[in-house]
């Protein structure tokens, strides 16, 4: 029933609709400033956890779900364009991995136990990649080639993005306990700007399946990808540690590497070649888009050029 209703919606509405919803969320946050009243100094532990839960949901889960609203538009693309969209998603993931590699080096350097940090990073990266690679290999042996499921790859993408989202929460939690609500709001706006791109990144693999999965899967993937912002906020407010942050980032990089292999295999299953001109072009677009959203616009927000306090 839902699919038949969506079939009657113009394509341009499916493409532009999530942008309109995102604009409404931005406006509500910017003009109402809902988190300026309560600071960590006059809040109980329960109140801090609750506020960080709400903030994390708005900065993490909601933008991912908004981005997933592009699924009906992506689903009806031709195979080659769908592969191109999956390549764009890979570009997003590679940018995130590169950014986190820099964060790993920074946190290890800032810690007082550099050798321990290097060991933790190596262990976190290697163990995560090995476990996910082993699970993927086992799954592929258990299922016939004709049953290769984009939904399972989408869950892996959501997991990798979720691990990355912990780092975002660490920043929010740290500023919250420092009683800097303006910085918290600016970080939220910045994270929302690029987290919305994680939604289509998650569902791109699902779009190549013949059947649309039940809505509960979309809800679950949204929580997996964006929910860890909440966990990161809790950790950042009560257990600030460079070694812990470096470990989380290393785990996320290991997960992303395995996900990239899965995405390439999924494209190869449907097409003769993974590296085509259009796939290469959209990969670069995905990387460049995240650079603009993550580095350029975030810097403009934090410097007050956009959304001045």
UniProtKB/TrEMBL annotation:
Highest rank taxon of the organism: Archaea
Keywords from the UniProt entry: Membrane, Transmembrane, Transmembrane helix
Keyword Membrane set for record: yes
Entry's transmembrane regions: 12-32, 48-74, 81-102, 114-133, 153-178, 184-206, 218-237, 243-261, 273-293
Protein name per Swiss-Prot or TrEMBL: Metal cation transporter
């Amino acid at each position: 029933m839902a699919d038949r209703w969506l079939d009657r919606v113009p394509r341009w509405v499916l493409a532009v609709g999530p942008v309109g919803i995102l604009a409404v969320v931005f406006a509500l946050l910017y003009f109402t400033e809902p988190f300026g009243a309560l600071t960590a100094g006059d809040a109980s532990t329960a109140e801090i956890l609750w506020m960080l839960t709400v903030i994390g949901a708005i900065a993490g889960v909601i933008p991912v779900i908004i981005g997933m609203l592009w699924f009906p538009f992506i689903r009806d693309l031709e195979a080659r364009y769908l592969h191109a969209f999956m390549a764009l998603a890979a570009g997003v993931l590679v940018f995130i991995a590169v950014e986190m590699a820099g964060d790993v080096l920074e946190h290890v350097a800032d810690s007082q136990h550099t050798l321990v940090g290097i060991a933790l990073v190596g262990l976190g990266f290697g163990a995560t990649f090995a476990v996910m690679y082993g699970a993927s290999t086992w799954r592929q042996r258990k299922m016939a080639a004709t049953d290769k499921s984009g939904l399972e790859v989408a869950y892996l993408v959501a997991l990798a993005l979720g691990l990355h989202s912990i780092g975002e929460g660490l920043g929010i939690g740290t500023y919250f306990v420092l009683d800097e609500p303006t910085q918290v709001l600016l970080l939220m706006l910045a994270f929302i700007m690029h987290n919305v791109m994680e939604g289509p990144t998650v569902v791109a693999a699902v779009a190549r399946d013949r059947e649309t999965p039940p809505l509960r899967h979309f809800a679950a993937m949204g929580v997996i990808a964006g929910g860890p912002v909440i966990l990161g906020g809790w950790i950042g407010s009560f257990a600030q540690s460079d070694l812990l942050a470096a470990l989380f980032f290393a785990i996320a990089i290991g997960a992303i590497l395995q996900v990239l292999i899965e995405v390439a295999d999924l494209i190869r299953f449907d097409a003769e070649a993974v590296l085509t001109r259009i796939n290469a072009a959209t990969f670069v677009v995905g990387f460049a888009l995240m650079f603009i959203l993550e580095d350029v616009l975030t810097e403009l927000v934090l410097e007050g050029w956009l959304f001045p306090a």
